[in-house]
Amino acid sequence: VQLVESGGGLVQAGGSLRLSCAASGFSFSSYYMGWYRQAPGKQRDLVAAITSGGTTNYADSVKGRFTISRDNAKNTVYLQMNDLKPEDTAVYYCNAKLEFRGATLSDYWGQGTQVTVSS
What pLDDT shows up at residue 99? Predict the structure, then answer.
């Protein structure tokens, strides 16, 4: 199983980045996919998620600025980030989760990609 993130980098406030997470080794289309982020000294928090059926949810802090999407043909999930703010600076992690009747059957993480937003 692999989750490989890409697309992070340094951007000025107000700019945009698009993160990608390429998945392999599991049945991608069946999984709930999420993007999390972790700033130094803080806990890892959910940023956005998308179900196998395409339903999305977002953290309040990114609503209207970030968009999560998935391409099941490419086994890839994306996070389009617009109007970036310095407080968006963090390591962004891709997560794949398979749940059934409330139980987590599988839970995979990528290695993370750094996003730095300068003011």
Answer: 87
CB of 22 closer than 8 Å to CB of 75:
yes
Q: Tell which residue, 44, 52, 33, has the closest CA to residue 92.
A: 44
Beta-carbon contacts of 109 under 8 Å, excluding residues fewer than 6 positions away, are: 3, 93, 94, 95
Reported as a single tens digit per residue, the pLDDT across 72-98 is: 999 999 999 999 999 999 999 999 999
Q: What is the pLDDT of residue 58?
A: 98
